[in-house]
Amino acid sequence: MSTREQALALDAQDPLAPLREQFSLPEGVLYLDGNSLGVLPRATPARVQQVVQDEWGTGLIRSWNSAGWITLPQRVGNKIARLVGAGADELVVADSTSVNLFKVLSAALSITVADAPQRKTIVSERSNFPTDLYIAEALCRERGFELVLSEPDELPTLLNGRTAVLMLTHVNYRTGRMHDMAALTAAAHAAGALTVWDLAHSAGAVPVDLHAANADFAIGCGYKYLNGGPGAPAFVWAHPRHASRFWQPLAGWMGHAAPFEFTPGYRPAEGISRYLCGTPALLSLAALECGVDTVLAAEPHGGMAALRAKSLALTRLFAAKVQADCPALRLVSPTSDVQRGSQVCFAHDEMAYAVVQALIGRGVIGDFRAPDVLRFGFTPLYLRHVDAWDAAEHLRQVLHTGEWREPRFQQRHAVT
Description:
Layout: H1 4-12, E1 30-31, H2 43-56, H3 63-66, H4 72-84, E2 91-93, H5 97-115, E3 121-125, H6 130-143, E4 146-150, E5 163-169, H7 181-190, E6 194-198, E7 217-220, E8 235-238, H8 240-243, H9 282-296, H10 303-325, E9 330-331, E10 343-347, H11 352-361, E11 364-365, E12 367-369, E13 373-377, H12 385-401
Parallel strand pairs: 1-11, 3-4, 3-5, 5-6, 6-7
Antiparallel strand pairs: 2-8, 7-8, 9-10, 10-13, 12-13
Helix pairs in contact: 1-12, 2-9, 4-9, 5-6, 10-12
């Protein structure tokens, strides 16, 4: 287990250390919740103010052309594409993660059933993020499919001649366990099924290569590791072999081949642009672009490979110290680097929520996931090795002193 002095020495040698200056970090806060909401980039307030005061205030509606508002979903999409192994003009920013999942899952089902009507199941992980399962459940009810759920290691055994789609989140939100995207995609294809990948806890956090994995569809979140701000729009990707095969179900005007023809009949755009729907949220898109730029700033320093190496170092350090100092907690994240995303999660049947609240009271911000998980996200762009060490030390003190037992830490809030 590292000492605090060793953690400081690692920080002194960290080639990514200058990237921390991109962010507005509150004094006295150790922020281990970037997997829920990323930190504010310093560039964002000025950029949003520019959009409000200059582009909207002065340019008014002219800014759709003069400021390039109309192509912003594609421009920001092309930046995100560089982080997830997608090609140019294959990924767009639009709507929310849930809405985009509905689009691509619906399209994937249509493609599969057109080729093989007997395929009637969607396979997913039992502990997948609830919104993914809810969207899948709703589509199953609407279309007469069945949602089949299993533990991660059992997934390949459920892929068969009835499987239409394998739908998975690349990094599990509760445990941080990361699937082998290429292997599971290959297994799905061997069974004749398509894949839909949720990159909410992957994009900007771990290396992703959608083309190398031969994935079919992917969606992802803008407000976690991409630092786009609360409610930032999400993104959607379809492999070029699928992008123009079927209409996505939300045939809005921005997905039309020529939106400003104003014709009554729908004619979908070619490629990924048909996955747009309504008018884009320009203020949020401008903020998201600033967040994506903070991740792209790592490219001269080694890019996603360097971020991944630091992420693994941070999570190893934190997990080792907590395991040594806090035996009452049970590690639920993988110990294997290959299987672990950019978070570390511990569990306790009784005190998990109160411990997280006590840590927040100390300025160490993680979060709680029902029923029993203490979750800590590690964003290597702005977290230091000493932050990981200090956070683990605070956790030790909260448990050692029984601080978590205070009544104020037992009160449940609406957002956990």
